[in-house]
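[Automated response] Your request has been received and processed.

Submitted sequence:
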Amino acid sequence: MNKFIFLLIFTTFTISLSSQKVSNVVISNSPKNDTVIFTYDIEGVESGKKINVVLWMSTQGSSYREIHSSKVSGNVGIIKPETSGKLSALTLYYVPTGENEQKKQSQQFELRVTEAIPVVVPQLVFVEGAKFRMGSTIGDDDEKPMPDTVVTDFYIGKFEITQGQFEALMGYNPAQKYGVGSNYPVYSVSWWDAVKYCNALSRAEGLAPAYDELTGEFLDQNGEITTDRLKVQGFRLPLEDEWEFAAGGGANPDGKISEKGYLILQKWAGTDNEAALEHFAWFDSNSAGKKRKVGSKKPNRLGLYDMSGGVWEWCSDWHRGYPGSIGITDKTGTYRVYRGGSSYFHPSFCRVAYRSNGSPLTKDYDLGFRIAKSSDGTNPHSVKTDKE
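Generated structure:
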């Protein structure tokens, strides 16, 4: 049996100015197995007002990371106090799993307690999967050659995430100066900021977070790293193929099909005609250099708004060339993809096939995001979201 040396640090975090704090912490090992047992109190709770208890861990001075819900049990996660004042003698169990985790010799823990903020999931649209060809023959080199692509069913945000939605969940509004308001798209968010929003939304809805917040890799419902989007339970950023497929109209009955049975996507989100783009998008020549409220133009064939123009939108992917491409640098580990153009750019940058990229640390005045979620494969309307 492995033995552990535990260096214990407990810190209380609150989103509001509440007086909640953790006290009387005792940590021990189970004599029968490697389970770590925490007993503790929480002071300053209010009857009926939910709190969220999460255990975080650092190994040998590394950055703290959340311990996945599959490895903890007991009084953890969402707790709804029945009385005000103090919750006493709470118990939390942590079970290290995996050879690497069990070999750790020095661990620090933080028990983070926040108020469980009521959150409304942004409206999502179900997108039926199909086969199509990504890219363009008329665009930049990284849009070629056009790869044959099959997209499985998924959900995607009807609108870009707004400043109001972001602030309600994360506690701050990063957007300043260049168009501020609860119904304006959030911007000045890095890829990491978007990932943290997705994970926070997942936790608020009782879903397993989609991302490892240290590496950016996908996580399955057991907290294990995966490359299979279908195993990701929580909310996430759309992958490039999902984003392009949805922006171009997807498998809408009004869409065109090629002789080889591939869907032909629209050039922009909502139209193939640049002269008609002003009805569907905000771009350089019709925005007067200003941001606009989300949903103030017509939607595309799937009922999605602002996928061309508005603000650029982060995708999950690293930027790399399509299969068979020539001269495109693989930027895995350095640059993430964003799509869609913005209200400051020419329509050529707002095409659904156009690809841009930047450091995941980039925070720009016209860079935002929308969320996506893998389908469970059984019920296309199983995701609970905001209603129109």
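Summary generated for your ticket: The chain has a mean pLDDT of 86. The first helix runs from residue 99 to 102.
If you did not submit this request, please reply to this message.
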